[in-house]
Amino acid sequence: MPLTRRQMLVGLSGLGVVGISAGLGARYWLGRRADQVAAEYELIAAPLDVELVAGALTPAWAFGGSAPGTELRVRQGDWLRVRFVNLLPVPTTIHWHGIRLPLEMDGVPHVSQLPVLPGEYFDYRFRVPDAGSFWYHPHVASAEQLGRGLVGPLIVEEREPSGFRHEATLCLKSWHVDEQGAFLPFTVPREAARNGTLGRLSTINGVPRGTVDLPAGQIARVRLLNVDNTATYRLNFRGNAQLRLYALDGNPIEPRDFGKEYWLGPGMRACVAVKMPAAGEEIAVRDGPMRLGTLRSVASSEPGGDWPRALPPNPVAEPDVAGAEKLLFNFEWVGSVSVSGDNGRPPSFWQINGQAWDITDKTCADRPIARLALGKSYIFELKNMSQYQHPIHLHGMTFKVLASSTRKVVPYFTDTYLLGRNERAQVALVADNPGVWMFHCHVVDHMETGLMAAIEVV
Ligand code: C2O
Ligand code: CU
Ligand code: CU
After folding, report:
1. Nearest ligand, CA 193
2. Same-domain check for residues 55 and 199
3. How far is the centre of ligand 1, averaged over its atoms, from the C-alpha of 416 (Å)?
4. Which residues line ligand 1 (CB under 6 A)?
5. At a CB cut-off of 8 Å and minimum separation 6, what does 444 contact?
6. Count of domains observed in the chain
């Protein structure tokens, strides 16, 4: 039986499903013991009816009693400990997108761990090396599980004050629902072979045309997270505001003017500093010409501050570009070749270097597409041979974007690169994390119909 939001707040302990003390779905222990610096949470995934369409309930799945899920926060260098409790009717895992962590904590079923069965729990514990905006989501039946709302922000705070006194997290997601709030198919083969299946109702933090209040005259750090299955947001703002870009995908950049628009592909994040206008004024957050939501300026008596300096760099190893070995990855569309969908297998529309990942085959990771030597530097040449964009994401390691055939690149570190149609790009990394790491497109439909591979570091 799905929980309503009110029941969730009343307390899960009343359900008597598991022997845990649960008030809210997630708890943040502010008290930190000196010897063990950690943020500890108990995070419950459970069905939750949400009101996306006025007067109608949508049977979502939620982390910590909200969809998108509870914001988890931890300080850079500290431990994050999450007891994850699965009260869903299906097996699942949590993957910590963009966090460099040991393989056993990476949440990939049958590679990092076995799926967490209904009624069971799993303890995730790892140290977070990098500060920035990250997010978490399952890596099992992703189209449905992320589609139903199992996505959440993970904010890693800088060790020292960043200079920002105000901030807001905006999770962008578009829901596959009809006018009555009922779910539509999360994936349609015809769409999976193209851009991926788009949702119909855009939201900010789970609210259509959501509004976030920020103090007038202050410079606020606005973290925009694309937690959507499919959509690339052509992010832009309208209103009387100055905007500067401070970080991309969890890594600082040299602050620069936001410019006209920024394309935020699925899985990607942007940290934008916004100088809020006078009280009562609004800034529209937009996807191309479409308004997604609003930043509203509210009265503040605080004196206005200055633009903070650049955020401190994360301790990511600098690749040796001159001495790096080059590897070529071709991303191809093969829709016409093997449209199957029979034998209970998903159709296969996409390949990396001639190999399609099959999400129903638990042995795919035994055949990695590349083997990297621990400690060595590599340049990946990413070649998009299709007419569709692919946000290419790597687990376990952060890479540096060096160059692109279609745009001017100021080199920067990231975990996801939006590879445009027919684009070639070069990215470099130090293979410094041993394990078998997923390398995939973050358009969930693409990843589930072939565009995924494993890269082994030994
Ligand atoms: Cu958001 Cu495989 O990752
Ligand atoms: Cu990831
Ligand atoms: Cu793709």
Report:
1. 3
2. no
3. 9
4. 95, 97, 137, 139, 267, 393, 395, 438, 440, 442
5. 142, 143, 146, 147, 187, 196, 229, 230, 266
6. 3
Task: Decide: pTM greater than 0.90.
Answer: yes
CA pair distance 254, 409, nearest whole angstrom: 13
Dist. CA 98 → ligand 2 center (Å): 5
Domain boundaries, position 381: 325-457
| Residue 426 domain flag | yes
Mean pLDDT by 10 residues, the chain (458 residues): 33 34 40 64 98 97 98 96 98 98 97 97 97 98 98 97 96 98 97 96 98 96 98 97 96 98 98 97 98 97 91 98 98 70 75 92 93 98 97 98 97 98 98 98 97 97
**Ligand 1 atom 3: the closest Cα is on which residue?**
97
Question: Distance (Å, rounded) from C-alpha 77 to C-alpha 91?
Answer: 31
| Residues 224, 185 share a domain | yes
Give the CATH number for residue 254. 2.60.40.420
User: Is residue 73 one of the residues assigned to a domain?
Assistant: yes
Closest residue (by CA) to atom 1 of ligand 1? 97
What number does the ligand 1 atom closest to the CA of 135 have? 1
Alpha-carbon gap, residue 258 to 103, rounded angstroms: 35
Report how far Cα 306 is from the mean position of its chain's Cα atoms. 30
Within-domain flag for 224: yes
Do 59 and 176 belong together in one domain? no
Question: Are residue 289 and residue 331 in the same domain, yes or no?
Answer: no
Residue type, 264: L
